[in-house]
Structures are given as C-alpha cells and as structure tokens.
Amino acid sequence: MSGDADPPERTPADTAVVLDAMLGTLATYLRMAGYDAAYALDRGVEADDALADLADAEGRLLVTRDAELAASADGLLVESREVIDQLRELSKAGFELALSEPARCSKCNGALVEVDADARTPSYAPETGARRVWRCPSCGQCFWKGSHWVDVAETLSGL
Ligand SMILES: [Zn+2]
What we know:
Structural class: alpha/beta
Strand content: 5-15%
Number of domains: 2
Radius of gyration: 17 Å
Shape: globular
Helix content: 25-40%
Bound molecules: zinc ion
C-alpha cells in the first residue's frame, strides 16, 4: 500500500477550472471532456494575482504549471510539458476524462446547444455518418462527432 489518500473525484458537473497561459491545449481537451474550462489568455488575464482572483471570484480550480502559484492559490500543479502527460496528471488527480456528448466549445468555452438538423447550412454539413450537430452561441462554431472527436475519445480512453 502506498498510503496515499485517494484524490477527490472531479467531474464536469462539480468542477470548473481556469488554466494558466501555458495550458491552452489542455484547456481544449478539458472542454471536449465537458469541463467549464476558462483559459487565461481567452480572458485577457496573465498576472498571477489576477488569475488567483479570477479563480476565487468564479469558484474555479486554478490549474497551473507554476508551483508557487499553485501553492499560494490552493490550485493544482501540472508538471508535464506534453498535453498527453498533463492529461494523465489530471486523471491521477481525480478528473474524470471521457467524451460523452459535446457540451463546451473547444475554441471559446461557450456552452453548446444542439441544433435542429433542419437548421444546418451546407457550410457546416458534417462528414458522412455524423447526424447530430452542436453550435456555440458565443462564437458560432459548430461541432459534431467526426474524426477529431473519435481521435480525442481514443486518446482519453488510453490514459
Ligand atoms: Zn465558441
């Protein structure tokens, strides 16, 4: 036995995060996994104090590669440089990482809305086989379960 306590389990339903400027790619993966994942540069926030304040004000867990900031803001330190290793770290820290339904815009973190198939325009017609489409009301981007979705699902299931 290692003696380590099990980490708290985290799911998109109970955990919102803010990621520092180093973790933009990780933010897109977390959004695809359904997390409300704010990203420092999307929010125009880079200074440590401002990041800690944002996390506090919005009830977000601060995820950062800065050990001092993680300690001072009661955040989660990510040590790896590669996103796949960062995802493994989050998985070990209790994050449930899997794809079910598209819920968050990977570009801007907007909450996605499933759109009626009849409302699609040809410019966002998905590749053959994908029937459902979700749209981000904030930036207009459309999503479906295409080849990128399948790739990410496989990546996450292989952690
Ligand atoms: Zn968006």
